[in-house]
């Protein structure tokens, strides 16, 4: 416990751009590590990019078919023994509250056939966890980690959109969710947002209108208007109304935004939903893939003084919800064929065993196989939410409540 506290204190006291240097020094000193690397997932979630002195960094590692990628996908430590070098390489997830940032890679000396000591592995994972928290905080004050994540240059619109997101995945006992945008380095209008409290999870998914900077500015206006209303404690209907007014007041109906707004009541699974010309929603329940039909209402900002009415439904433990923008449905193959609902349902079904944070990337990769390698005509968004339900209360907690 004392050693863990010393690690955390050293990270807090380090300059933001030096936190990885600090953790590397600690691991080398305590465990005799031969090499320590931090690999951050790139914006497309296909490469793990090593932290180094920019612009001269080492080659990236693919997420697919690599030992670090295995640890990243499973979100569990993984190690590989090199008998010829008498070393063992440990790969540890660098994640915070379900948001998968990357991998901490540590090469240690090892006797033949031996893996890392269990206590050493636990200490290294603690270092990875502490580093994850500090990376999130440090990104407010340094560009080092944001620069290292990019495998190529972002467009200005994409820079604006990625900065707008709350993260790319998140988990709590009640749910796990993840989202992805494509083309990752040139996205312009699509976006998602979420926020959770003790009892509620708010999720919004937006299908942006227009291209480039105009689309990014429109989405930024809408998302921040929704956040402003949500943080004021307003109902879901009032959040939609005030965002609608903000967009209409700026563009007078010439530009508008299709948005799906949801509020999940965490203790019960009750859901309020407003389909404001939204991205479409699919549900997987007990192996059955089906679209969730909601009453369509006007997109945000299309008309003045639009009233929005929330619909209600319930999610059950084991349900998976997927939110998919028009860029997926309208994607054309080189022969001009649209991506059909049948192909989409097959993609949803083929990813049913993957955890929610992995599903969007895999589905968008399958879409790329349909569309081909040419430039995308529209950006695409996939978001996946797995509903686990409220955790059962322990007998002790129940007894305590009865006594009260």
UniProtKB/TrEMBL annotation:
Domain PPM-type phosphatase: 174-387
SMART domains noted in UniProt: PP2C_SIG
InterPro entries: Bact_Sigma-Reg, PPM-type-like_dom_sf, PPM-type_phosphatase-like_dom
PANTHER family in the record: STAGE II SPORULATION PROTEIN E (PTHR43156:SF2), STAGE II SPORULATION PROTEIN E-RELATED (PTHR43156)
Pfam families, sorted: SpoIIE
Highest taxon above the source species: Bacteria
EC number annotated for this UniProt entry: 3.1.3.16
Enzyme category, top tier: hydrolase
GO molecular function, one term: protein serine/threonine phosphatase activity
Keywords: Hydrolase
Protein's name according to its UniProt entry: PP2C family protein-serine/threonine phosphatase
Keyword Heme recorded: no
């Amino acid at each position: 416990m004392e050693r863990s506290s010393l690690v955390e204190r050293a990270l807090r006291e380090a300059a933001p751009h030096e936190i990885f240097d600090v953790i590397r020094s600690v691991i080398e000193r305590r465990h005799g590590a031969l090499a320590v690397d931090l690999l951050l997932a790139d914006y497309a979630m296909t490469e793990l990019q090593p932290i180094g002195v920019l612009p001269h960094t080492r080659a990236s590692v693919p997420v697919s078919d690599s030992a670090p990628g295995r640890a990243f996908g499973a979100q569990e430590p993984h190690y590989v023994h090199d008998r010829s070098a008498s070393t063992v390489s440990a790969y540890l997830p660098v994640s915070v509250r379900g948001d998968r940032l990357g991998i901490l890679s540590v090469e240690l000396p090892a006797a033949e056939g031996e893996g890392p000591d269990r206590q050493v592995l636990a200490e290294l994972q603690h270092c990875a966890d502490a580093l994850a928290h500090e990376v999130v905080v440090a990104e407010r004050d340094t560009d080092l980690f944001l620069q290292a994540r990019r495998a190529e240059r972002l467009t200005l619109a994409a820079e604006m959109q990625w900065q707008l997101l709350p993260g790319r995945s998140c988990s709590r006992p009640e749910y796990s969710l993840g989202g992805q945008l494509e083309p990752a380095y040139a996205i312009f209008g699509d976006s998602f947002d979420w926020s959770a409290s003790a009892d509620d999870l708010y999720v919004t998914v937006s299908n942006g209108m227009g291209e480039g900077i105009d689309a990014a500015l429109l989405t930024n206006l809408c998302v921040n208007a929704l956040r402003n209303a949500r943080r004021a404690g307003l109902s879901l209907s009032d959040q939609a109304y005030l965002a609608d007014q903000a967009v209409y007041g700026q563009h007078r109906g010439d530009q508008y935004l299709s948005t799906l707004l949801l509020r999940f009541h965490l203790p019960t699974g009750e859901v309020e939903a407003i389909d404001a010309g939204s991205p479409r929603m699919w549900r997987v329940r007990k192996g059955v893939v089906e679209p969730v039909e909601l009453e369509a209402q006007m997109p945000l900002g299309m008309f003045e003084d639009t009233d929005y009415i929330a619909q209600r439904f319930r999610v059950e433990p084991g349900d998976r919800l997927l939110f998919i923008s028009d860029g997926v449905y309208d994607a054309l193959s080189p022969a001009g064929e649209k991506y059909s609902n049948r192909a989409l349902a097959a993609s949803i079904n083929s990813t049913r065993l993957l955890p929610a944070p992995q599903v969007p990337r895999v589905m968008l990769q399958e879409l790329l196989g349909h569309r081909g390698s040419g430039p995308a005509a529209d950006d695409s968004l996939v978001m996946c939410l797995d509903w686990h339900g409220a955790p059962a209360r322990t007998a002790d907690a129940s007894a305590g409540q009865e006594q009260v």
